[in-house]
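User: I've been going back and forth on whether these two constructs are worth ordering. Before I decide, could you fold them both?

Assistant: Sure. I'll take them in the order you sent them. The first construct and its structure tokens:
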Amino acid sequence: MRYCLVLCLLSFAASGCTRIPQPTSYSFSQQQKMQAAYHWQVLATDVAGQINSELVSRGLLDTPVYVRHSCGKPAGCGKGGTFAFDEGFNDLLTTRLVNLGVPTEAVQAQDALVVDYKIQVVYHQANRYQWPQPGVLTALTTGIMVFRNAPWEIAAIAGAAGTDALWSTEVTNGHYEVIITTSMVRNNLYFMRKSDIYYINDVDVGHYQPSRPAGELELTSSRF
């Protein structure tokens, strides 16, 4: 009878304690890192190609487009409203559209398809560590096992090669990422929308957001 009572109590306790899912990471994947203006050009070329394809598929070859700055103001962003990526990407995308033969306006007209882009800077406060991709450590271990009975010269070479291979997979992740979304809109309807995510260097974050104005110092006069 006593054992039955203990078993019932244990069953009741187990049913009252719900286990939560075990946290796990995503499977191994790769994400590009923007580190040069050339990378902006690669993105602009890709976006321009997609815009051109949409215009062709919709039979809008003669419809003009206008590339608007990220601040969203047709007349311009104003002082301090733009930044390096905004200026560079706007120029690169406009140039690529013109080179593709897309009618591209210098000033926004009412009947133009508007190309907008938005840059969202994402900051991760935690330090993020990246281990070598799956299979690297296994390959290194196998190589070392094969050469363990070889002369020390060969073993040293194999060890150095293994170390180089291990370091080649090491990537230092910063705290910042950017989400760049490009859209083509007319009459509040999306004709195209594309989002891309990239790593960026921490020290380059100023390229992707407006600079903050310096605090103003209030000047007061005093009487002696």
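The second construct, handled the same way:
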Amino acid sequence: MSVPGESAQVAPQVSDLGRYCAGLFRILGPGGRLVVNEYHPVRRIWKPEPGHPRVRYSYFERCREREEGWQFDPATNSAGLERYDYQWTIADQFFYLTQAGFYVVALEEIGDVREHWEVPNLKGLPEQLILAADRPESPNLEV
């Protein structure tokens, strides 16, 4: 059996989740298991302000520009690079894993405490999304 693969807190930096999952499928050996751990996407949509949570972004808005753009860096002679955060839904993650050829064997939402750095209080909402997906032993096995 293959050594398990792991992807943790990567999705918000990936602009093409389908291509990313296909790449994971290629490098994970037949019979291998991929475990994905992401900060739950439902916790990424709120305004960073105290008090009652208010929605800042739609859960379905998949790409948004970061407000704190990069400044000129004399060491690399670069400036004005745009940065984006990607908001992949649970359905997106499941879909792209199966499209790549994985068989999703588990999907769990865990935790519901307030993290010390979270503003507003998101206690009661799921904290982490965990997915486990297997790469079939046989390339001819339909998923």
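Notes on the second construct follow. DSSP finds two helices and six strands in the chain. The radius of gyration is 18 Å.
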